[in-house]
Design a protein that fits this description.
By secondary structure, the protein is an alpha/beta fold. The protein is about 35% helix and about 20% strand. Strands 1, 2, 3, 4 and 5 form a five-stranded mixed β-sheet that branches.
């Protein structure tokens, strides 16, 4: 696989999805002009993707309702929820932020599952190309990781597949190059002891998106 092709995939995966929420015509609050909306969407995507507390065990989305940004998704650490809101609230034109990001339970079992799923996915020869650390944890056993597990000290760098764990249930999100890689990630996640279920929401580069 060429470096150029993978770089396009990684860039696309960093563009956090957004939704323009439907509004009732009689009560619809004013929103931005098209040019301002485009600018704000790009600014939000950039600011959220650059958060140092946003990592492989988190998932972020945002929507627009009038001149309000609605944040959603899952945060493995509480600090991400506040960091996300603080990052976007000062964008010119944004009047308010509705922060609906869910903070995932602080669970030793979920922490163990995150480590297990991470290792089994990103050490696979077929999948390590989707990880900036090429399948390695990258930082070894830091004090934070020894004290609080991998959730408190997640692997750094880009990861095309994000691993969301809640009460033993795993959701895989992100983007890969083909269906075979997406299926392989699901199979390997299912093999981790203690995992109750795996929901595969990994997208495929170049696949058409059908609006729901």
């Amino acid at each position: 696989m060429s470096t150029l092709k993978l770089s396009h995939l990684l860039a696309a995966a960093l563009l956090l999805p957004f939704t323009l929420l439907p509004l009732h015509a009689q009560t619809a609050p004013p929103t931005w002009a098209e040019a301002d909306t485009t600018r704000i969407v790009k600014d939000v995507q950039k600011k959220l993707a650059r958060l140092t507390t946003f990592g492989v065990f988190d998932d972020l989305h945002f929507a627009i309702k009038g001149k309000t940004l609605v944040l959603s998704g899952s945060a493995s650490r509480p600090i991400l929820k506040s960091d996300a809101a603080n990052a976007v609230k000062s964008i010119p034109g944004v009047e308010s932020v509705d922060n609906q990001i869910e903070v995932l339970p602080n669970s030793p079992n979920d922490d163990r599952i995150r480590a297990g799923v991470y290792n089994t996915i990103y050490t696979a020869a077929q999948l390590r190309k989707y990880n900036a650390n090429a399948g390695r944890l990258g930082r070894g056993l830091s004090v934070a990781r020894m004290a609080g597990g991998i959730t408190n000290d997640p692997p750094i760098g880009f990861h095309a597949i994000h691993i969301i764990v809640k009460n033993g249930n795993v959701t895989l999100r992100g983007a890969v190059l083909n269906e075979m890689d997406a299926s392989m990630a699901q199979i390997r996640a299912n093999s981790v002891f203690g995992v109750f279920s795996v929901t595969n929401e990994i997208g495929i580069e170049g696949a058409s998106v059908v609006a729901k």
